[in-house]
């Protein structure tokens, strides 16, 4: 395990419930977290990074082909505590999924990470990067963001602007923003207060945090891959092999 800097949390929620529609036809018979990249499923890459960083507790939400994903987690014999947040009855989206999982998450704050993430660390692992910037008194959430030049296979216009203090604001319509959200963040329980019921996007909570000046970003110092479609797999594998 790595890092002289204490982590902000020993717990991570892994978002793994979605349909993975952009990854079809590979997700016709398997959930996106089980799509193979560089010889192992996407979610295995995530668990490896979590363990290497020193995270020992995790919560995974499931919905699409949930039995298949749970069976995979069972045979992995992971060296960490893994709890399942079951959304079989209703897919709750990112925000609703966090709210449902909250009773299983004992730590405040906690890391939240998309299960389809592939990245190369910079001088420090991403969880240490975030922990270095985390300030519970000022922040409801701290998002790991990456500039376009270090975002492999990303075709979008970016997500956020950042001021000199690290506060985030949204991209303007029809404009390019310099930073892309990687799908990795630290979340305070305060962000989830008074949340809507049922399915909703985390963006609703982020918008409130932006208005209150409590949504911050930390810039990833390594490389990040947008593995959203089948065509992105081979370039990602090349990046992992040759750096």
UniProtKB/TrEMBL annotation:
Q: What is this protein called?
A: Nucleotidyltransferase family protein
List the PANTHER family hit by this protein, alphabetically.
SUGAR-1-PHOSPHATE GUANYL TRANSFERASE
Q: Which InterPro entries match?
A: Mannose-1P_guanyltransferase, NTP_transferase_dom, Nucleotide-diphossugar_trans
Alphabetical list of Pfam families matching this protein: NTP_transferase (PF00483)
- In which organism is this protein found? Alterisphingorhabdus coralli
Nucleotidyl transferase domain span: 12-233
């Amino acid at each position: 395990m790595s890092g002289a800097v204490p982590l902000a949390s020993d717990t991570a929620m892994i978002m793994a419930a979605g349909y993975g529609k952009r990854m079809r036809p590979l997700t016709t018979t398997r959930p996106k977290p089980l799509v193979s990249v560089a010889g192992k499923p996407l979610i295995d890459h995530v668990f490896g990074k979590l363990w290497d960083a020193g995270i020992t507790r995790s919560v995974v939400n499931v919905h699409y082909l949930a039995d298949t994903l749970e069976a995979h987690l069972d045979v992995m014999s992971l060296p960490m505590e893994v709890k399942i947040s079951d959304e079989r009855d209703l897919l709750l989206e990112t925000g609703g999924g966090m709210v449902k999982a909250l009773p299983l998450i004992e730590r405040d704050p906690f890391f939240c990470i998309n299960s389809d993430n592939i990245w190369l660390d910079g001088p420090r692992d991403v969880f240490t990067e975030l922990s270095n910037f985390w300030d519970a008194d000022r922040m409801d959430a701290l998002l790991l963001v990456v500039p376009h030049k270090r975002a492999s296979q990303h075709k979008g216009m970016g997500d956020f602007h950042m001021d000199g203090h690290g506060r985030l604001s949204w991209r303007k319509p029809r404009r390019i923003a310099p930073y892309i959200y990687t799908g990795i963040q630290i979340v305070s329980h305060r962000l989830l207060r008074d949340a809507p019921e049922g399915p909703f996007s985390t963006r609703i909570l982020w918008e409130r945090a932006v208005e209150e000046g409590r949504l911050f970003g930390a810039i990833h110092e390594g490389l990040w891959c947008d593995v959203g479609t089948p065509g992105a797999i081979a370039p990602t594998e090349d990046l992992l092999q040759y750096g």
